Batch of 4 targets.
Target 1
Amino acid sequence: MSDQWWDHLRRDVLDCNLCTQCGSCVGISDGTLAFREDHGIVLPIRTEKSGQVPEAAFRACPALACPYPDLNRFVFGKLPGNWLSGVTEGSFVGHATDKSIRRAGASGGVISAILIHLLETKQIVGAVCLQVGASVPYRAEPVIARTKEEVMRCAQSVYSVTPVNTILGTLEKEEGPLAYVGLPDQVASIRKLQRIKHPAVRNITFVLGPYMGTQMTFDAIRSFLRSHGVSSEKEITRLRYRAGEWPGHLEITLKDGRVLTAEKFHYNYLIPFFITRSSLQLVDFTNELTDISVGDAWSPKYESKRGGYSVILARSARAMEILEDMRSRDLLALTDTPLDEALAMHSHMLDFKKRGSFIRMRWMPVAPDYGYRPTSIPSARIFIEWCLRMFFAIGALRISRWAIEHLPLKLVGPVFNLLRKGWKELSKTSKRKGLRETEFEVCSLRQSP
């Protein structure tokens, strides 16, 4: 007997290299699917368990068909006034006032502070988060944090692919209400499941998430280790992606007592070599389907102050109520910030997603359907994308990865950072020109089975 929905998932998503590793299909598959890692990339496979893969495992997939206009109407009751940001009711720059929470976070500790507040005010009984080292020192895995201490253990960003939504297999039986923290594709899948009233997401009542630009496979960590003469990730006893003072640094503690570190912008030298396909195809940078999304406040006036500042977008009435309540209780220090100013902090990555991703999809044999697209993109911007395409293609070569591991890291990181700044300056005019004025049209590119 044909396994209809597994056939669709395999043929339409996996064979087309569209999978974003969100984890939903495995999480709600009743054990008929599992993940297998291959060179840092985790992909679902069919298990030997009898029975059909549930239809919802295919319907939940955000990789093939993820109609943002329909999902915006479902979640917020309207379309975005600005397609660069998504639906926005308020925009802020701020940080947690509790110094321990602020310092523990990747930037301003805002997501951790909100989750702790929701727990302490009994608005939720738990929050789905990622925790590094819960069972394996170097692995992140989804957990349900039910106390302040458990939330704090989940603080910080994770820059390697982790299928958060595998936890959906247990959520149906969990007590609610729950908050949920995820990346844009993971959140989109949650919203798709909520729209079809799937029992796995019935207890999720509030959704938060970080901005997401690029992401790397776990092979980036393995490569970094090899550059230091470490042959296996099993030598790791602790892994933190953004330790220390904002903007933080990669910090890996080994069994032999050594601590390997790299400044955030120096560690980014690995992006061209280990960037994920999903990073290149996803069009959502600011996590548009959350109630609250949070990113780093990259602005000279905040960077110079150090300490950690976040840009915060509130997308729903309840989100605004929560933020204002926390401000009145002095739990969050918030500065009202015009949306244009908030977007300007990430104009480079907004362009990478809102124009770059749509250009890159033109070159894909099968492209995702997001339900909207820019009406036009300047030819100069398309040329920039061709340059990036060649850059990433060279980085993906085995010889390139071998070479980067054999160059002195004290040289590679700083040189990459200089090249990154130079490239941003060189391409700034083409990448920013017309970005704010880009018009988008709602469209439908395909019909799902």
Note: The chain is about 40% helix and 20% strand.
Target 2
Amino acid sequence: MSIAEVVARTTAAALVVVSFAACSAPAPDTGAPAVTRVDTTLPEPPATQFDPGHIVSDDSFFDSGAMDEQQIQQFLESVSCRADEGVRCLADYAQTTTTQPAVGGSHCAEYRGGVGERASRIIAKAAVACGISPRTLLVLLQKEQSLLTRPTVSGYERATGYGCPDTADCDAKYFGFFNQVYNAAWQFRQYTEEPDRQYRVGTVAIGYHPDAACGSSPVEIRNQATANLYNYTPYQPSDTTLADPDTGDACSAFGNLNFWRIWHRWFGDPEAERLPPFFPPCSRLVGGHPCPAPSPTIPAVPGR
């Protein structure tokens, strides 16, 4: 994503950037049963079925309750991980985090910092604070840095690709796992609360590659979640890329296609919704907002 997209995050630079020694702190023992590490791979449809206008449903993208901390931890332990020497797999990673204040309104709620928080807790808390599915954050970590399957020191620094534009070096003030995860969740909420930007619901020209000479074509973006993905990674796969999604050509950009493919492998269809369309839009998180909580009622006093 571009530096211009992150300049509004004035508090981001205050986030903790943990030293590598701290990053390797052991995770707390929760007493939960161990989960055997296995390849987590569900059937993946051919890339030609990718729909650039509807990559993921709002319901899937914004469902912050899709996985709780324990389920995220079990998932991390189930993924086959091969780390660089001296680097922990995400299931074993922990770091101290700092409190991030509530933004207000429908934006992110407070993230209360803690000592030695496991990656699963950081992901769960950031998801709830900003109303983003932990599945969205898990897929993003893999799409950007292969952090679940092949973690590296550099991968932890740049975990979600936040502050890492395609045409310049990453901004080091955004380095660090917690820094990256929280800021990505914050940014997705920012796109949702302020959707009037280049990539929005409607028909928009989207390029195939950072090199403008590779061309573009119009895409009818049909939901806010898909618009958010394009604001974060502003490219669509070309026909050549869809025909050969593992190799492509010199004009291939794989980011949003890989988001769709990884989600399919890990969680099933990203376009799925829990409720049928005749339910109220807010119950399906359309536009990124849940239904408002019912107002408390005052019980009637007998005889009045």
Note: Residues 1 and 29 are 36 Å apart (CA to CA).
Target 3
Amino acid sequence: MTRVILNGCYGRMGKTLTTLIASQQNVEVVAGIDLNQGDAPFAVFSSLSECNIAADVVIDFSTPQSLHSYIPSAVEKNLAVVVATTGLEEKELTLLEEASSKIAIFRSGNMSLGINLLEKVVATAAKVLADSFDIEIVEKHHNQKQDSPSGTAMMLADSVNEALNNSLNYTFGRHGLKTKREKGELGIHAVRGGTIVGEHEVIFAGEDEVISFSHRAFSRNVFATGAIAAAKYIATVAPGIYNMSDMLALI
């Protein structure tokens, strides 16, 4: 049985995880962490340091800033961590790197299994098409999303770029640019509106033909499902930083 603590349990993803985990076997939510008030079928604490319930792993879909409050406590309590938060800056990445010498940390720009398969597909396509095709990425999310471009868009961009020996330069939108598209560009564009859960398209535009690879999430369940699988996996491995490729390699 994998015992889970949900950081940000009253948030949208926290509530989705609560419902989904309740329907599964061999995993349970034993506690939640949230500064807000609400109702939950488990004990909720204002910080991980205050939590006195034994667990195996913390799942976090909250904010980059929250890492600074709970990662030290996770290290102290020897809890594995699933970091599903995007928009991390260098200080958060450094914090995770330092903590990974003592605990197991799972981090992905997107917890969807489909997106992580797409990442592998576009990397392969880039190796075949990049010489004669321009590559652009368009991502769409709901109007409450704070980071832009999305962590998933950057994950896809980095996968394409790494496949091409990091030869591309990222261009974020083209407002104010009065020059033609350069050969070595990889364009990344963000759309925000309504309740779009998440859409990503990688476009390969060539001479007289366009090839596109896309993924659409219709509910948050796809991210929750991946996070639960990640929690079960990360609770069993040695300290270090792991990602979806590490987990998928075992499937």
Note: The CA atoms of residues 23 and 156 lie 32 Å apart.
Target 4
Amino acid sequence: MALYHNAAKRALANGGLALGFGLHHLRSNAAPMLAAAGGHDHVFIDMEHGAFTMQEATQLCIACLPHGVAPIVRVCAGALDEATRLLDNGALGIVVPHVDTPAQAQAIADAFHYPPMGTRSWGGPPPVYGYLPPHVAEAQAAINNEVLTCVMIESREGIRNADAIAAVKGVDVLLIGSFDLTSDMGLAGQFRHPEVEASIQKVADACKQHGKVLGVGGISSDEDCAFYIRMGSRFITSGNDHSFMVSGSIAAAKRTRELVAAAERS
């Protein structure tokens, strides 16, 4: 059985954009198909703020694989045990929030990669090989190359340590958690405040210096999103199921009411 490749990691390696479809509410195995229909590279399954169980998250991960969208899961801070179980059960990437130091980043990189890159334990035939892997040494080396390791920078301490965090081998993406970062700075929600822009620029510079990818999350306006894309952000979600459903339902209701009003006037 051939290995399922990580479309998001490959897009980033080629200098492109890794576009994500965020999942907060949907538990259906149709979600990966919906993400693929929209041309997304990955599904961003949120176990930090969403209420997904391990069972639900892993079933979504497995459902992603044949559709060519990479299953990437955000776990809670420090939940490396959950992260490695997710990797053993279909995930091709893990996002860890609230990473403030290079020591934390190193522990994450070690946990997510098999030796000699790290200390991840072999859990038997994995779904990323359709449960039919080649020899363990070959499988471990190949899987190491597919796993996307993403650490979130969400504090002033994380900004101060951005260069050292970006230097950690095995870390692929430094993702800015915009809401928590601005809150920590006493500037909650002020995504274009000069101090916030300067802080994110520092992370962007560290990524460029060490060949890592910048991501900026939590930005909703097109203007702000365009600004941080110009800064170099390439790991992005187009939105999540919540925003898609709410904005879609508002637009559909408004359009229908306008049609009814127009009919009544005619």
Note: The chain has a mean pLDDT of 96.
